[in-house]
Amino acid sequence: MVIDLAFIWAGIIAFAVLAYVILDGFDLGVGILFPFFPHKHDRDVMMNSVAPVWDGNETWLVLGGGGLMAVFPLAYATILPALYAPIIAMLLGLIFRGVAFEYRWRTKRAEYLWNWAFAGGSMLAAFAQGVALGALVQGIPVVDRAYAGGWWDWLTPFSLATGLALVIGYALLGATWLVMKTAGELAEKARVLSLRLAIATIAAMGVFSLWTPFLEPLYLARWFGYPTMIFSIIVPLLVLGCLYLLFTGLRNERDTQPFLASLGLFVLGYAGIGISFYPYIVPTSLTIWEAAAPDESLAFLLVGAVVLVPIILIYTGYAYWVFRGKVNPEEGYH
């Protein structure tokens, strides 16, 4: 039996990226929502709700990016030059946000600056991630195993639209997280925002479901050709199911349900992207096997992944378990 190491590693990288999106997405969403909660007390509670877990969530970004470089070096060397600008913008946003997390609590006179750094860094990081995703989905030209496009190829109406859509989606995750983790007036305001953001998120998903297939003939064939067309029917039905759970959870005050339903929307959207261009890791240019490192390297690195990934999952799960339940506004975590 031949073990397809490139396929296994593609699954690990895909899982790491999805874990980052759904875990770091909600705390970026909390930052995006900062301007909608002008009172200091509310902002303190919002930051305290994510303080125990936000930096651990970014472990998955390191695993995804570092794994891509080690395991699919050709894809890394192709994608990075194509997306330098949005990736640098994302990192700057994450830096401002991380610094604001620490400094906001240590100053009164300049607190408003760190509030803006936290909100602005979160918005910039989310928008840049969406732009990078859109640029990747629309295709990266490769000639002789090297990026063959220009500096501004990533900047298109599609990539800008995906950037805006991801900001809205992360805001939905943040709002449903606040519904789950807070109480009182703050939670009620988050409940109202969750409803509006859910409608906006579903609208964005509908737009991109109609737009994406016409970017590349491959996508059109995947979405409307047999047997992958089956997923094109199942996924929208599951999306409607998640939307129903989200709305009923908000209406009946089942505070955990809307957050889990929002995560479900992201998982389904991610699955839709995977269906569109698998087995390409650089859409329409490089497959996972063409971009993979030698099997000897993949096997050696897999040993480390088999040890490290379960450890990361265990300590991440433990952190969420320890800090489960509503945030106490009088105590906080910080």
Helical content stands at: over 70%
Low-confidence stretches: none
Q: Note the main sheet.
A: 2 strands, antiparallel
Tell me the Rg in angstroms. Answer: 20 Å
CATH topology: Formate dehydrogenase/DMSO reductase fold
Secondary structure layout:
Elements: H1 5-32, H2 40-50, H3 54-57, H4 59-71, H5 73-82, H6 84-103, H7 111-137, E1 142-143, E2 146-147, H8 157-181, H9 184-211, H10 217-224, H11 229-251, H12 256-277, E3 280-282, E4 286-287, H13 288-291, H14 295-322
Antiparallel strand pairs: 1-2, 3-4
Description:
With 334 residues, the chain is an all-alpha fold. The protein has helices at 5-32, 40-50, 54-57, 59-71, 73-82, 84-103, 111-137, 157-181, 184-211, 217-224, 229-251, 256-277, 288-291, 295-322; strands spanning 142-143, 146-147, 280-282, 286-287. It has a single domain (5-322), classed as Formate dehydrogenase/DMSO reductase fold (Up-down Bundle). The strands form two sheets. It has a two-stranded antiparallel sheet with strand order 1-2. Strands 3-4 form a two-stranded antiparallel ribbon. The mean pLDDT is 85.
